[in-house]
Amino acid sequence: MTVADLTSYHSFAARERRIAALIECRLATLRSGDFPRFAGATASMLKECTEDADYVIEIALRVTMLADLFPTIGDHQVAGNESRVANRVCDYAMRASYVAADLAPRFQSMAKSAQLLVENGERRGLPVKLVSVHLAQFGFWEQPDDAQFVVTIETLGQNLRSRHMPMTTGSEEALGRLFVTAMETLERRAVARARLDDANADGTIDLLSLNAIARVGNAMAILQTMMTRNDLTLGNDFELCWEEGAIYSIADGTDRVAWTGSILTVSDYVLPETTCINAIGRPVTDVIAHPALDERILVGTVTSHEGEGANFVIACLEIPDLYFNVESGQIWSA
């Protein structure tokens, strides 16, 4: 975690604690019985540096609602308006509590279904755990028959590290379908993770992306930062992204050369047809010049397009992948 991340996290955490205290105090004055009451903050919020906050409200015995307000209000509106955020959470909690008794059977049934689905995944040897089952925030639903639930599981993210994955659903049947897709993805990622573990690697990065980040700063430090992120923006025109344990990059072409993964575009540039044909299988540097390109990156296909004020070349590249290990600081051929 960078210094900037750490500063942002501490500021965010302090604000979250203030809002939580306000919610707890206000609910104590609003309720006539034991419910609704503040039950805490989600584990994901406490563990990660994020600009999203989830609060858990128990609206009836063993029936909890997730209040997820920051994305809808907007972080720039939250700072200095903690009381307004807390009031809105309490308003939703009170309104949900009025129909909580009707929701209890469905809630318990949904929780049981989620547990069974996770156990099925575990029996298949998949790294999955049930984190929580909550009602979705009141407002996404208003009547018991329309209630939405948020089932959160621990699974593998794009970087093949553990992450929390929330699934919003209105029925057990729909939850089952979501699990089928989630477990198919997890099975594929578990295989990819095992392959990396066998190589003692944290991930792979393509050579184009590695060359590009080496121009920005310390490549290994940047890879270290990526271990806790799904993506990372470097400057105004360059982004790193994970996909199934592999890092690729996106450049927006401020210097006329843009790429997404292995697809590269050069604006205001044309090549003769014979040059395009002869370039296949050869180093891309034979036809396109850019500091992030080198002779190890080959041309798969290349086409030149000419039009009214829109001349450009598109190349599909064959880019070597490299393993990396941030602890040892090593990068080697995959």
Please, could you describe this protein's structure?
This protein is an alpha+beta fold. It has three domains: 3-98, no CATH class; 102-198, Double Stranded RNA Binding Domain; 203-333, no CATH class. 40% of the residues lie in helices and 28% in strands. The protein contains ten helices and 16 strands. Strands 7, 8, 9, 10, 11, 12, 13, 14, 15 and 16 form a ten-stranded mixed β-sheet that branches. Helix 1 packs across helix 5 and helix 6 runs parallel beside helix 7. The protein is elongated and about 80 Å long. The two termini are 27 Å apart.
Task: List the main descriptive attributes of the protein structure presented here.
alpha+beta, 10 helices, 16 strands, 334 residues, 3 domains, three-stranded antiparallel sheet, Double Stranded RNA Binding Domain
Offer a concise description of the structure.
This protein is α+β, with helices and mostly antiparallel strands and 334 residues long. The protein contains ten helices and 16 strands. The strands form three sheets. Strands 7, 8, 9, 10, 11, 12, 13, 14, 15 and 16 form a ten-stranded mixed β-sheet that branches.
